[in-house]
Amino acid sequence: MAEGRGAETGRAASPHAFRWPRALYDRLIEEGILGPETRVELVDGEVIEMTPQGSRHAAAVRLAQRALERAFGAGFDVRAQLPLALGEWSEPEPDVSVVRGGPRDYTARHPASAELVVEVSDASLAFDADVKQRLYACHGIPEYWILDLPHGRLRVHRAPGEGGYREVRELGPGDAVTPVAAPGRRVRVADLLP
Known about the structure:
The structure is a single chain. This protein is α+β, with helices and mostly antiparallel strands. The chain folds into two domains: about 40 residues, no CATH class; about 140 residues, tt1808, chain A, CATH 3.90.1570. It has three helices and ten strands, in the order H-E-E-H-E-E-E-H-E-E-E-E-E. The strands form three sheets. A six-stranded mixed beta sheet has the order 3-4-5-6-7-8, sandwiched between helices. A two-stranded antiparallel ribbon has the order 1-2. A hairpin with a 4-residue loop joins strand 7 and strand 8. The protein is globular and about 60 Å long. The protein starts with about 20 loop residues before the first helix and ends in a 6-residue tail after the last strand.
């Protein structure tokens, strides 16, 4: 008799991927199965290994965090590489996210949304421009920035929809951008680049 799914019909089972719900993923973290040395994130039910950070990438994360702290100020928490709980199937850890409130507002749970998400991209540029932008748009993140290190530019995504963002602009080092959630403030692209 054939083994696995389809055994009752005599057909061999076909392999299929297991989709991880966020609740199970969080339990693996809480129980130490996925520890801090395991650099992964959950994207649409898949556990994705994050690329190692070079010094240029790390510097860009810190520069973006500082620039956004200045731009947003009180009432917002600028978080570096911390989880967002996006629905049942995703818990990405964007390089920088800006959420409403402060750190104490998230002691019992991760934020379920953000005003702005920034991914610093070098080796991950294709993944960030495709999979991550669709993920953030699908969950209604109003603004998504990709800091494109290889090309020295900032891609600003706005107007989220089902398949992605409807507005995309590319800015160079001489440009500045006003975040949607901080309308009176400008962030210079040069201040984000290492």
